[in-house]
Amino acid sequence: MSSAASLSGDRHHLHAQQQDPTKTKTIRQTYARRLRGAFGRINSTIRDAVIEEDIFGLRDDDLSDEQVEELLDTFASADRDVELRAVDEPPDLSTVLPSERIERFREWLQTAQESEVLEVIDRDENVWVRRAYERGLEDADTNLRQAGLDIESTDSKAARELVEMPVHERKLQVLFSRNYAELEGITNAVAQQVTRELADGIAAGENPTKMARRITDRVNKIGKTRATVLARTETINAHTQSTIERYRQQGINSVGLEPEVQVQTAGDQRVCDRCASVAQRGPWTLDEFEGSENQPPIHPQCRCAVIPIVNEAAAAALEAHPHEFVAMYRTGAFVDESRERYEALAATDVDGAQELVAHFSPTQAAA
């Protein structure tokens, strides 16, 4: 329980670290890089198979080995940071009917995406989401301490232990499933678009170079781009979910009241008008804030954090009459019209405080 002195006075506003207020930049970057790398390996295999091996039988003239290598080099510059050729090659489809080529290549692509992209995470586990969630627990306690609450700090080891609590495990499982479903949707969209491009290219009689460009362009613009957005957005979502839950938990278990919250932007030139506007509003109670349009991620690739504001009306009531405050809190007296009741308790004397307790909980008053 925090001391009365630490909770009284002006509202304490936590100023989060600028540019990376959630301190998850490395998590976001490595998550996105792993997903892009998986799509990059698929693209590398497609380029080699379509141009060098001519698996669709599209080449009309014979190219020298040097010319083939030159064509491959024109595609490689976009994926220089990607480990190449870890994907099983597609089958030779040059001798089958065009319609069968399309279907068999789609089947290969789906398998390749399952083995490369979807293997990065799992329906029941996601190391990046888990670490972002743990980071949120650490940050929540740090933020509350900086806001003036007398609670113990949480390090990475303690955070790993905290996530084993049922309330956090349930939230993590929802986040894991959400990430997997989103990524699966991206791979399905890639397969659909590549199939369409392949059909159009075959119908147009395009050469291997143009066909490879058609296909890899879709993998890049749909697969890599959307996977990057997914990684960045869901990392912030995990951090926000754990932060809010920890604020609620610490408020009830350690403080005796729930803090109000505001949104903290990254504070740089990249901050959008929407996030800047939300950061100017509030504070909100946790019940008002959670699940609202103001909760980060406010938009895809949002970088905002949720920071606590000590509820000064509640703090004043707790300081004036701590025993009566706890009694009223336990009976739910502050669920409705909370600010008015906090202020009434803070302003009254001992007899008035007892009357308020009796009004809301005769059992507590008798005790």
Question: What does it look like?
Answer:
- The chain is an all-alpha fold.
- The protein folds into two domains: 25-236, no CATH class; 314-366.
- 63% of the residues lie in helices and 3% in strands.
- It has a two-stranded antiparallel ribbon.
- The longest helix has 48 residues, at 208-255.
- The two termini are 22 Å apart.
- Mean pLDDT is 85; it is low at 1-17 and 74-85.
Evaluate the radius of gyration. Answer: 28 Å
- Our estimate of the beta-strand percent is under 5%
Number of strands: 2
Enumerate the spans where pLDDT stays under 50 for 5 or more consecutive residues.
1-17, 74-85
Portion of residues within helices: 55-70%
Structural class: mainly alpha
* Quaternary form: single chain
The rough form would be described as elongated
Largest sheet, if any?
Answer: 2 strands, antiparallel
Determine the N-to-C terminus distance. Answer: 22 Å
User: So how many helices?
Assistant: 15
SSE run: HHHHHHHHEHHEHHHHH
Going across the biggest sheet, name each strand in turn.
1-2
* Total of domains: 2
